[in-house]
Amino acid sequence: MLGQALVEALQPVYQVIQIRHQSEAFDAVRGTGRSADEKIFEVDLSDPAECRNMIAIHKPDIVVHAAEYTDLDYCESMSSSRWLNIESARMLAGALPLSGRFVFISSDQVFDGARGPYREADKRNPVNTYGAQKVAAEDLVRMRKNALIVRVPKLIGREPEDQPGLLSSMRQAIDTRESGKLDDVCHHSPTWSVDVAAAVRFLLTRDAVGIFHAACPDGGTLYDLTQRLANFTGQSLAHKKPSSEIIKPCNGARRPVNNQLLSQKLLELGFPGFHSFADTLVLLADQGLIPGELAEH
Questions:
Q1: Which residues lie closer than 8 Å to 60 by C-beta, 6 or more apart?
Q2: How far is CA 199 from the centre of its chain?
């Protein structure tokens, strides 16, 4: 989702070479999902030789590294996730000449959620394996003097068919009509993927370095956000009840309660801002990603 938004945002400014992570392990988790587009190069980012060869062949001035396993519970149980979430950053950053710029997409999961919202300089204290992997990758990337790290929350937008995200989860909760509960504890700030891509382009064109947060200013719990989506589309969420306990799989990853990101540093640099959740729903309706008859809202 973010990868495609990045390509669309960066192509007017740069010559963009698209790299898609592909490996047997990835195929087993997500399905093959292979693209027929010859402009997309498939590389196993867990293979050091392939990473080095990719850099040597294409000789990029900038690498934007957005590939990762984002499933918190998968990362908790599968040690192999560290190859994509940590080692790929080590290999790509190490292969890129020092004159090249390295952009790493990180996560709000580096924080424990106990004292949110968070600024860039706040202490990192992840409560799950995925967050710990992002911390480790950040530390590797920060060894480069001209590195740029952009932390993002849950994203919402056009999803790849083989990788359903937050929007699909909320729509399924509304459409299935099965009774149940939705988490009403953990705060989320779902941010339009197009806004994040625009923020990356903004930072690149200004030669920014360091750590920046890119997140919309509002949000809510999964129950609250799904209720707002149901109201927008004119549907009912009466079959779902709010849960006062965090809902996660048995032995699943811990969830931060509120790791909202403050984007003031980015805004002070001149970035125009992020769409609110309500405004993003209008944009998603305009794109036909939610019932289109409500695009006039």
A1: 17, 96, 100
A2: 13
Omega before 117 within 30 of 0, i.e. cis: yes
Instruction: Say if pTM beats, i.e. exceeds, 0.85.
Output: yes
CATH value at residue 51: 3.40.50.720
Contact status, residue 187 vs residue 216, Cβ threshold 8 Å: no
C-alpha torsion sign, points 96, 5, 168, 155: positive
Domain assignment present for 230: no
Any domain includes 197: yes
Residue 54 within a domain: yes
- Pick from 42, 51, 138: which is nearest to 88 by CA? 51
- Give the residue among 151, 212, 225, 143 at the shortest CA–CA distance from 183: 225
141: Cβ contacts below 8 Å, ≥ 6 apart? 89, 93, 102, 104, 147, 149
Cα(101)–Cα(55) distance, rounded to whole angstroms? 12
Pair 76, 124: CB distance under 8 Å: no
Asked if residue 220 lies in contact with residue 277, where contact means CB atoms within 8 angstroms, the answer is: yes
In the numeric block, which tokens belong to residue 263?
């984007």
* pLDDT tens digits along 159-216: 887 778 899 999 999 999 899 999 999 999 999 999 999 999 999 999 999 999 999 9
In a domain, 41, yes or no: yes
pLDDT at site 34: 44
* Overall domain count for the chain: 1
